[in-house]
Amino acid sequence: MQFTIGFLRQMRAGLLVLLALTVVLGVFYPAVVWGVGRIGPDSAEGSPVHDTNGCVVGSALVGVDPAPPAGEPDPFFHARTTGSAADEDPFAPGDPAAALPTNQGPSSDVLAGFVAARRAAIAEREGVSPSDVPVDAVTGSGSGIDPHISPAYAAIQVPRVAAATGLGEPRVRELVAEHTEGRQLGFLGEERVNVLELNVALGLTAPDCVTAGG
Q: What is the pTM assigned to this prediction?
């Protein structure tokens, strides 16, 4: 009889612990993680960036270089090159889904050729001397999808963007300054400019987005 009562007590205690852990770890904890993951601009929702119509044009955390319409002036700021996992084209777009950078190292002749080709092409596009093209303009990041560029790379693009958009250089420089982020925690990394957010401020929109009133 005593064995049965003790067994039932232990079973009851075990069931209560199981129920408590189920509530805490199966309901409360996931709910807290879900809520915390949606706080702030860099949330688990992917940090979407919206245009003036409220349409999503991309993510603030993923760099995708915009392409102007063929034969028309180029009104966009351009991101860092992503390179190509196949190492066949210095300007081949990377795959944001795979985040594949080039596999070429600092001593690679292929990478050196890519850097030279990029420097010449960017200098011609921006109307500057090749020596004025910043390092980040001709090299990719570790992920291959860096959404930021240096203020120096943004600066050499200002005259072209101002001419293509008709906004004037002072206004474009003002927008660059507004979208320049400081060093993390005040001392980590360098100042940087988010290319997608800057292009949205210049009027970049989602071509296939349907708004509520459209």
A: 0.72
CA 105 to chain centre: 23
* Residue-range domain boundaries for the chain: 1-36, 48-201
Count of alpha carbons within 13 angstroms of residue 55, beta-carbon side:
15
> Token digits for 157?
């693009």
Q: What is the pLDDT along the chain (214 residues), one digit of tens a residue?
A: 666 776 678 888 888 989 999 999 888 888 888 888 777 666 666 677 877 777 877 777 777 777 777 778 889 999 887 655 556 666 665 555 555 666 777 788 888 888 898 899 999 999 999 999 999 988 877 777 788 999 999 999 999 999 999 999 999 999 999 999 888 777 888 899 999 889 998 887 766 665 544 4
**Residue 188 DSSP SS3:** strand
